[in-house]
Amino acid sequence: MTIDPATLPEAPMPRLLAIMAALRDPERGCPWDIEQDFASIAPYTIEEAYEVADAIERQDFPALEGELGDLLLQVVYHAQMGAEAGQFTFDSIAAATNAKMIARHPHVFADAPRDKSAQDQVADWEAIKAAERAAGAEKGVLDGVALGLPALLRAVKLQKRAARVGFDWPEIGQVLDKVAEETRELTEARQTMDPDALEEEFGDLLFVMANVARHLAIDPEAALRRANAKFTRRFAAIEAALAAEGRRPDQSTLEEMDALWDQAKAAEKSVGTSARKSG
């Protein structure tokens, strides 16, 4: 026996919660949804968060609406599984978040002064979070930095935590010196061709590059996404130029593709210069 949608609540949020409960109904729900657990759904949650970020970067706001809905569905999914296990509910999740937001914004919901810069308020936020960690089970400085974060983002968060207790380079020049040192060590490891040593030294280099990003106030994930987009755009220009001659990249040479890459790069710079002048 199927579930009649007309029996579901009309208000959007209660309706979404009821839909998820119906999908997970042991007798009448969807077999795939019934089989899922927190671990199997987690990758979809991460994927949906990235798709939200992608829509924002492309400034595709109709798509953003849909992607935010998909991300909300992930929260609802986890909430339903938590309710089934007697661990938490959607309401308890919302209640905990409400309490957290009020506690972390004393300048809005209490009598703390509001005449602070955004940077001062970020510092206050971090101090409140640190107090929360101290009151809880987290005792070490690095405790609570999620293992499931993208590696570059987690590296930055680990470094920020360490910097709060003074474990940090005072000057960006020292960090750049460390980049040179790690590059030399990677080169030395390459000479031995030991796969484990290569991976370790490459990881060290990436870690220190994340530190460079932190010192320069750059989001390394955003910077790499931008570099990915640039590579995709310029390689597409290579493909288009070759296609105009009835050829594919595998029918060209590296030298020819390098030349086409340089042409695409020059064209982008020319457009950027023109835009700045017209602005």
Automatic annotation (TrEMBL):
Keywords: Hydrolase
Domain of life: Bacteria
The EC number(s) this enzyme carries: 3.6.1.9
GO MF entry, a single one: nucleoside triphosphate diphosphatase activity
InterPro entries referenced in this protein's UniProt entry, alphabetically: MazG-like_dom, NTP-PPase_MazG-like_C, NTP-PPase_MazG-like_N, NTP_PyrPHydrolase_MazG
Domain NTP pyrophosphohydrolase MazG-like as annotated: residue spans: 36-109, 176-234
Enzyme class: hydrolase
Name of protein: Nucleoside triphosphate pyrophosphohydrolase
Species assigned in the record: Halodurantibacterium flavum
